[in-house]
Amino acid sequence: MKIIVCVKQVPDTSGKVAVNPDGTLNRASMQAIVNPDDMNAVEAALKLKDETGCRVIVVTMGPPPAMGMLRELMAMGADEGVLVSAREFGGSDTYATSQILSAAIKKLGIEDDDIIMCGRQAIDGDTAQVGPQIAEKLGLPQITYAADIKKEGETITVKRMLEDGYMTIKVKTPCLLTCIKELNAPRYMSVRGIFDCMDKPLETYTYETLKDDPLIDLATIGLKGSPTNIFKSFTPPAKGAGMMLEGDDRDTCDKLAGLLSAKHII
Amino acid sequence: MATFNNTDLAAYKDVWVYCEQRQGKLMPTDFELISEGRKLADELGVNLCGLLLGDNVEGLAKELGGYGADKVYVCNSPLMKDYTTDAYAKVICDAVNQLKPEVVLFGATNIGRDLAPRCAARLHTGLCADCTHLDVDVPNYVEFLRDVSTLDVDNIQWNMENRNLKMTRPAFGGHLMATIICPRFRPAMATVRPGVLKKAPVDQAKANACEVVMLDVALTDADIQTEVLEVIKASKKLVDLIGAEFVVSVGRGIAKDIEGGIKLARELAEELGGVVGGSRATIDSGWLSADHQVGQTGKTVRPKVYVALGISGAIQHKAGMQDSECIIAVNKNPDAPMFEIADYGIVGDLFKVTPLLIEAIRAAKAAK
Ligand SMILES: Cc1cc2nc3c(=O)[nH]c(=O)nc-3n(C[C@H](O)[C@H](O)[C@H](O)COP(=O)(O)OP(=O)(O)OC[C@H]3O[C@@H](n4cnc5c(N)ncnc54)[C@H](O)[C@@H]3O)c2cc1C
Ligand SMILES: Nc1ncnc2c1ncn2[C@@H]1O[C@H](COP(=O)(O)O)[C@@H](O)[C@H]1O
After folding, report:
1. Domain positions in chain A
2. How far is the CA of A108 from the centre of ligand 2 (A)?
3. ipTM
4. Are B343 and A161 in contact (CB < 8 Å)?
5. What is the pTM of this model?
6. Which CATH superfamily is domain B246-367 in?
């Protein structure tokens, strides 16, 4: 049994974000982090590893510096890492990304008791599409928004969150799950883990490695092959700052109530 | 490679809205999508169709007509009583392949975001997630950009004939906006954020005229690989942030007296006739339940008045409330970013300001 976790390195959008004059994101100015939901996916996989002794493989598609992230995840406890990286893969939308990651997962092989895990969504694109699209490309059942995962033999029972409650869903392996932050609290790297991680296998899959898979068709991957294109990107204008109300607290509150009343808001 | 549905784009016509129902009740976002879909269908000069899946759900169809649907396709099966990705994706993809719509919209609910990507991947077409604005006609799009962007729209060469669906959404946590198109494949698909698009007034004549079309459903047990054991509705009533005209939200600023802070917010909300919301910090700390969260990973609200008490104004929070008609910020830090978008700002301690504000509003109302 193995668990393959798809992990993305993303710019930390919670800090200051710089936008280039052409409207693209100045990634160089931002710190790269592991996508938060993906940390929960890794933790869920490591928990199952603690219980069953299975193998955990972390897979990322991105530029070569993402290797550092894979090493960190191996220091947390993942057994192997795969970096999927090629010029041909750059600029892929979620559809194209899911085809490439699916090809990489197929290369690793999917056995009857395997699980694929993703984060629910990545904070740079915020789409939550890649997980379900991988499941479709691999022909696996999916359960998204997993807030609790129990495994008994080849049966997985998942608490799947809805806005107004939850569902409990049963599925057989192999399957794909997407994880949300309510699932767990990710562990830290251990000293031992940091020591060991450099000896663990880390492979790179290039275009050459994957090109024989029918999913890797230049007409359907990369910037040119992606079904969606960016028509325009832009920054919202800074909203003109409104009125700061001056005076002591009672004055400001009276003023505000007066303004709201004059505008018939109250 | 699988067959691509890009051989004859012109064969794809009509705007479809996937109308989600849970336990036989339509979701509020269905009406927003039908109302918006009407506008798009008119711009394209095609029909607007609802797509309704479930077990004996045809009774819900006419209501969708009231918001502008010309037609509602209904797919019934006992196997679709509970939502499963497998059953619903199969029935939707079969219907799309048979009837060939050029646009399909889904609500970006937890279920819409499970279903739409699965369908898009199977149909080999593009999907844009969590859109906040849609256009077909270029002049409308240009006017939209004039309002919401820093682009010099008059000095851009526009191809007025571009009839692709233009799907606009925030990216990078709201730091950037992007308009996405799907020029080579059909249908163009989008999930749309609940609470963002405006619902049209109900038109009873349209509801009566709406055509209900039952579609054949080819579904067997073998198509469904998951088993739904139970569906549990949250026992307590959830706060209706999206429907509220007044929202009073609290942030970490209430830390020194959590109960007191929430109580003040409740009182102010009651005085205004609204509800209480919160920043993610208050949800992560367990002070308010998750249904209260406003922002990128919470709900998007655009009430008449949004009051932010002790909320710093992180971009992820702003992403969920910056389109409110009037924003009032109370914060003891004069440099809090929330003041940059507030219509009215009060620098002060929320524990002192809020009671005075409630009093002042009460007095102003009484004086009317
Ligand atoms: C991927 C991602 C998604 C996120 N999604 C969301 C989201 O959906 N919604 C969301 O809200 N956040 C979200 N966040 C978190 C966001 O970045 C901020 O951390 C959060 O909004 C901060 O909450 P806050 O303003 O309550 O707390 P703080 O930033 O700590 O601000 C507290 C404010 O209270 C003021 N204050 C303190 N005491 C008082 C007092 N007595 N009277 C008046 N003012 C006082 C302080 O001056 C300060 O400005 C997200 C972050 C990430 C990374
Ligand atoms: N480039 C990538 N490499 C590895 N995993 C990815 C990549 N992009 C997306 N994912 C996975 O898909 C999930 C959803 O991403 P998204 O659809 O971009 O919001 C993420 O949480 C990851 O688990």
Report:
1. 2-210
2. 18
3. 0.91
4. no
5. 0.91
6. TPP-binding domain (3.40.50.1220)
